[in-house]
Amino acid sequence: MLEDPTAAAPHPAPPSSWPATYPQGYAVVDVETTGLARDDRIVSAAVYQLDARGAVQDHWYTLVNPQRDPGPVWIHGLTAEMLADAPRFPEIAEQLSARLADRVLVAHNAAFDWSMLAREYARTRSAAPVRQRLCTIALSKELGLPLPNHKLETLAAHYGVVQRRAHHALDDARVLAEAFRPSLHRAAETGLRLPLLACQPLTEWSDGPAIGRQRSYRQTWRPSRKRPACPYPNPGRYEPGGQLVQGMRVAFSGDTSVDRELLEDRAVEAGLHVATSVSRLTSVLVTNDPESPTSKTAKARSFGTPIIDEAAFMQLLQDVTPAPPTNR
């Protein structure tokens, strides 16, 4: 286990009046995984528990046996041999839950870490005790930090935090905890409303459809609640370089790094209409492979529908323009 540098830098002076609406505690999380797809698994996890003002209370780290190939060893450094005797996720779920309970989950690109955790918990037929998450990328944008990009190492360098082992879950969680603390204080000092998002657990799962006399080895996942209809009228197409507006119709094509269901839930939470197909009414198509010869990309081009990638869409979701009031 890495050294815990809880006093690596002095805490900023607390504001005279801390926002009463701010959470009472945070769980800074980082997970390393076998990949980015919906059937990939966690190979290591770390949690730094912080109090209401960002001071470190405790930290925890574990390897996890993914019960499959470990994936990009050249990134996380964890080989099959190293993970062979590690506990499986059901064996560490209780310890992890104790560290997440009653706290806001904080992560860098939190949608990804949350999606991986949600799926692991769903495999155990349970749910993570997390109701809200906070993405430090979104917080950095809200604060207007002068960052050339939104990589973790860039945020760390901005605050003078030394990164020792990139892509090691414990060190990444430590780095993020140290970088989150001054961001939290800056937000409190300016009275900024934290960009908190609801965490919708995946509590139902089933085996894939039968193929002949055997069942598919993959699982299909679905959110625990049916998505409501979009309450806002369609304001039209997205203007490249502008903002998304509540009511816009968004369609997705191809694979996404964030679980598709969670990505769509995030769009619905922001007030967008998730469409299953592309038509002349579609405001924007999201795809990581705009050159792919799919029917959706072909239709988008024929209709002149704007096409953006997942990363751009995730950034736009941080600041969706409210729908204009309707006259009744």
TrEMBL record:
Q: Please list the residue ranges annotated as the BRCT domain.
A: 240-328
Q: Is the keyword Nuclease in the record?
A: yes
Q: Which InterPro entries match?
A: BRCT_dom (IPR001357), BRCT_dom_sf (IPR036420), DnaQ (IPR006054), Ribonucl_H (IPR013520), RNaseH-like_sf (IPR012337), RNaseH_sf (IPR036397)
Using the UniProt annotation, give all residue ranges assigned to the region (Disordered): 214-238
What molecular function does GO assign, one term?
Answer: DNA-directed DNA polymerase activity
Q: What's the domain of life for this entry?
A: Bacteria
Instruction: For this UniProt record, give its keywords in alphabetical order, as a comma-separated list.
Output: Exonuclease, Hydrolase, Nuclease, Nucleotidyltransferase, Transferase
Q: Which Gene3D superfamilies match?
A: BRCT domain, Ribonuclease H-like superfamily/Ribonuclease H
| Record bears the keyword Plastid | no
The EC number of this protein is 2.7.7.7
Name-wise, this protein is DNA polymerase-3 subunit epsilon
Organism from which the protein derives: Streptomyces demainii
